[in-house]
Amino acid sequence: MTGAPTLVRVEDADGLRSLVLDRADKANALTAAMLADLRRAIDSVARDGIGMVVLRSASPALFCAGGDIEEFASGPAMLAAQGEGLRDVMLALARCPVPVVALARGKAAGAGVILLAMTDIVIAAEDLSLVCPEIAFNMYPVIVQAALETKISAARARQLCFSGQPLAAPAALELGLVTDVLAAEAFDALSARRLAFYAERREALAIARKARLRMEPPDSLAARIASLEPLMHENFSRPGVQDAIRAYLARLRGARAD
C-alpha cells in the first residue's frame, strides 16, 4: 500500500533544510495538515542542527495560492484548524533561531504572501506576483496585514490588502518585501547561485536573525495575532461572504470539469 502523498517535502543537506511545497495540482493551496507539517519542520531546526531554512515550491510556475478554500469552507471546524495552523506557522517562523530564505516565482496569494513576509530573505523571479485577494469575497485579510507589517509600513500593508491588485516583483523589491529579483527564464540556475551566496554567509545571516529576534520580539506578534484572530472568523460569518466563496468554488469545479 502507498501512503498519502507528501505535500510538504522536508529535505536536509549541508545544514540547510528545504521545505518544498508540492501540491501543484491545487496551486500549493495550504491545508491544515500542510501547515502542521511546516510548523513541525521549523520548530525542530535547532534540535536537528539546521543552520538555515529554505522555503520553495516544487512547481516552476507558482509559489502558493494561499489557504485551501475548499477545506476551510467545509465547516467551522476546518476553518478553525486552518486559522490555528496559520497562526502556528507564523509564530514558528517569527521564533525560528536560524535565518529563513524563500525562493519564489509565479503567484503568491493570501497565506502565500504571509509565508514570504515572515522570511528574512526572498529570492524572487521577475514573474513573481503577490496578491491579497480576500477583498474580492468581501473579506479583509487582517492576518495577512499583520504579517506584511513585519516588513513594510502599516499604510502600505493596508493598501495591498484593500486593493486586491497584484504586486509585481520589481515593486515588491522597492517596498522591501523581496530581496533579489532574478530573470524568470534562468531562475533555477540564478537562484541556486544566489542561495549559495547566502549559505556561504550563514554566520552573518545568523547575526541578522538574532538582531531581528531582539528588535521584533515574537511575543509581540503573538499578541497581535491573538487580538486579530476573532476578526478573521468574523470575516467569514459576514452576510454574503460564504455565498461568494461557494460561487467561486463552483466556478473552479466547472473549470476543472471542462
TrEMBL record:
Keywords annotated in UniProt: Isomerase
GO biological process, alphabetically ordered: fatty acid beta-oxidation
InterPro entries recorded: ClpP/crotonase-like_dom_sf, Enoyl-CoA_hydra/iso
Name of the featured protein: Enoyl-CoA hydratase/isomerase family protein
Origin species: Achromobacter denitrificans
A UniProt-annotated Pfam family: ECH_1
An MF annotation (GO) of this entry: isomerase activity
